[in-house]
Write a structure and sequence with these properties.
By secondary structure, the chain is mainly α. Helices cover about 45% and strands about 5% of the residues. It has a three-stranded antiparallel sheet with strand order 1-2-3, covered by helices on one side. The longest helix is centred in the N-terminal third of the chain and has 18 residues. The chain binds zinc ion. Zinc ion (ZN) binds next to helix 7.
Length: about 280
């Protein structure tokens, strides 16, 4: 059954690429490996097109974006948190925003636990309900630590008041707009679009999935191993390697340097001994 579906996927992607004057290189196409793990056809096609367009939306860029969202109404509170939470938790858009089709995937107060206590949290645990790429619906856990001591905007302590305001309704959407309605994908896209506009960045590089890429890349730049990143962000194939970017030219634009003083891996590093070793660990 897998074989037939897989062949259909290959044929569909090939057709899709030919329309855009490109050819499919199966050996280099990690998307096809993802299809084998059950990713939907449309999602994989989108990745083929956009994979090399997106840039890692790493912490400094998020800080610059937070500076663009100043009004402290409830809607903007969510806008700020979505960027931080998406990055720190390496979340997918389907976890952060409401999907009419799959409301069970949406993040609710019941999925979040502040540890060691609500009164004095130093970290929080998010139990993700499910996702498009997780067909067997096993739980995904993310742990996010307080970074108040490091003077970063802290996801844990910014989320706390939002959580407390919503905890009476544990099964409802965590992020509600000013009028009480949930946040949709296009709301998050609009936030990113406006921030990019403000910072003179090109929006095409910063779709919501750039948050997941940014979270993984940020860990990579800070000496975490690929195995650790795959564990933290719940990647179960080598597709995690496509999330680790060696640089982001836009950092210079906002006054930061790539890598913060360390030598960064380049794309060729993906095939080096470290990557091979990591593949071995997974098996
Ligand atoms: Zn904190």
């Amino acid at each position: 059954m897998i074989g037939k579906t897989f062949a259909a996927h290959v044929s569909a992607i090939n057709y899709f690429l030919k329309l855009r004057g490109r050819e499919l290189n199966i050996a280099k196409c990690s998307q096809l490996q993802m299809l084998k793990t059950g990713m939907t056809n449309t999602a994989a096609k989108l990745r083929v097109i956009t994979q090399f367009k997106r840039r890692a939306l790493v912490r400094p860029l998020i800080h610059a974006m937070l500076g663009c969202i100043k009004t402290r109404n409830r809607t903007n509170q969510w806008r700020r948190l979505a960027l931080l939470l998406g990055h720190d938790g390496m979340l997918r858009c389907s976890n952060l925003t409401y999907y009419d089709k799959e409301p069970d995937w949406y993040l609710c107060p019941k999925h979040i636990t502040f540890l060691p206590s609500l009164a004095q949290p130093d970290r929080m645990r998010i139990r993700l309900p499910g996702s498009k790429t997780n067909h067997i619906n096993t739980e995904e856990i993310r742990i996010i630590h307080c970074v108040c001591a490091k003077n970063w905007p802290c996801t844990v302590h910014l989320l706390l008041p939002v959580y407390q305001a919503r905890q009476h309704d544990p099964g409802a959407w965590l992020f509600a707009k000013q009028d009480g309605s949930p946040y949709y994908r296009h709301d998050l896209e609009e936030t990113l679009l406006n921030c990019c506009d403000f910072l003179d960045l090109e929006y095409k590089y910063y779709t919501p999935h750039a948050l997941r890429i940014g979270g993984a890349t940020w860990l990579w730049w800070h000496q975490h191993t690929v195995a650790e990143i795959a564990h933290k962000g719940n990647w179960r194939s080598d597709s995690v390697l496509t999330y680790l970017r060696s640089e982001n030219p836009d950092l210079i634009k906002i006054g930061y340097q790539n890598g913060f003083g360390r030598i960064l891996p380049t794309k060729s590093d993906w095939t080096n001994e470290r990557a091979k070793k990591w593949r071995f660990i997974l098996k």
